[in-house]
Amino acid sequence: MKALTYHGPGRRTWGGDVPDPVVRDPEDAVVRVDAVTICGTDLHILRGDVPEVTQGRILGHEAVGTVTETGPGVRTVAVGDRVLISCISACGRCAYCRAGTYGQCTGGGGWILGHLIDGCQAEYVRTPFADSSLHKLPEGVTDEDALLLADILPTSYEVGVRNGRVGPGDTVAIVGAGPIGLAAIITAHLYSPSRIIAVDLARSRLDAAERFGADTVLTTAEATPEAVRELSRDGLGADVAIEAVGVPETFELCARLVRPGGRVANVGVHGKPAVLHLEDLWIRDVTITTGLVDTHSTPLLLDMLAVGRLDVSGLVTHRFGLDEMQDAYDVFADAGDTGALKVALFRT
């Protein structure tokens, strides 16, 4: 089959010399990939920021497809089912999985697709723990819309909005208006904050943030603590600052924008150390959270999508055929010039 494989920092190939996946364990399923996307984490991998990814690994952890084969232990999905492939695999048995913290699974799951095992930027993918890691798609939910629930919507919701404890009346600053930041805007609205402030370098992404519901947009240069305090409900700064980029400067900016007693929720994948200014933060009672998504919210988000309570239209800006994988990577990686938010690739 054809697949996108990693060959060290800066090197990737798309080719047809990759063996087809097969069921190895009783709880496996093989899924034909009907739609797939590229994540910012894939770009981090290609920059060498995730050394656990070995050469020859098929990348990708966000896809929608059709089940073509199941192991004898699979009970909740069957051949022919349309499914969302979660970015997180869950054994369903370990202590973390029983607590709904699937990202920390110690039974062989967690973030493994496109990381520790072959992923889904391919024509077919083997998915371990199919019963707890695949989600049957409701009627009427399109492949494109469902694709956005494989990673960015649950990540932004769980690691940003929920970990940051966004609540009614809060002032929320979201630093980074890429796909994760925009998804954080969408899901923060579920909790009725008084103001959402989006911060980014690119004018095109700030325009997108306004379309998705940001009340105020600021360039990085404009996003000073003084400016955010003036925009907050009581002049004290952001109740919650969500870091949605993954570079030291944006994390440190979030720590400056948050009010005393506020929360910094780090969502971005960092490849370099960031300075933690405890000499300033300790006395301000600031809470900092980090986390890998658990995807425990995926069924809820799918239900909301199916009944029209979650609008993800507009997040996909560029569409390709599966054989155009290399072009899609180039467009996504050069988002500053191309205006790409999420790209979607479809089986033709």
The number of E-state strands comes to 15
CATH superfamily of the largest domain: Medium-chain alcohol dehydrogenases, catalytic domain
Order of helices and strands: EEEHEEHEHEHHEHEHEHEHEHEHEHHE
- Note poorly predicted spans: none
CATH architecture of the largest domain: Alpha-Beta Complex
Overall tally of domains? 2
- Kindly state the mean pLDDT as a whole number? 96
> What is CATH's topology name of the largest domain?
Quinone Oxidoreductase, Chain A, domain 1
Which terms would index this structure?
NAD(P)-bd_dom_sf; Quinone Oxidoreductase, Chain A, domain 1; zinc; Alcohol dehydrogenase; 15 strands; alpha/beta; oxidoreductase activity; ER; 348 residues; globular; Rossmann fold; 23% strand; six-stranded parallel beta sheet; 13 helices
Description:
By secondary structure, the chain is an alpha/beta fold. The protein has two domains: 202 residues, Medium-chain alcohol dehydrogenases, catalytic domain (Quinone Oxidoreductase, Chain A, domain 1, Alpha-Beta Complex), CATH 3.90.180; 136 residues, NAD(P)-binding Rossmann-like Domain (Rossmann fold, 3-Layer(aba) Sandwich), CATH 3.40.50. Helix content is 27%, strand content 23%. The chain has 13 helices and 15 strands. Strands 3, 4, 5, 6, 7, 14 and 15 form a seven-stranded mixed β-sheet that branches. Helix 5 crosses helix 6. The longest helix is centred in the middle third of the chain and has 11 residues. The protein starts with a strand and ends with a strand.
